[in-house]
Amino acid sequence: MTWRGSYTVVYTAAARRQMNRLPLAAAMAMHDHLTGPVADNPHRLGKRLDVPFDGLCSTRRGEYRALYSIDDGRITVTVVTVAHRRDAYRPS
């Protein structure tokens, strides 16, 4: 049996700070994207990333990217990074 419904979206403290630094329209669009289509089906919308981001997925909204992990056991999507595409894939 497959679970149907939305995943809970959780932002890390760093992702929350990054969202606050985005232009308002971009932050609202990204939040709506993450809590809407991504929460409904994070595996379909996310692109699996390779090393050094192993275990994370990426989704885009305009010029911005969100990197997140999926916990199917807890039905949770944890947003780790939200940044402009030129900065999103730079290891910290």
From TrEMBL:
Entry keyword set: Toxin-antitoxin system
Database matches in Pfam families: ParE_toxin
Gene3D superfamilies: RelE-like
Keyword Nucleotidyltransferase assigned: no
Coiled coil: none
Similarity annotation: Belongs to the RelE toxin family.
Protein's UniProt name: mRNA interferase RelE/StbE
Organism in which the protein naturally occurs: Saccharopolyspora antimicrobica
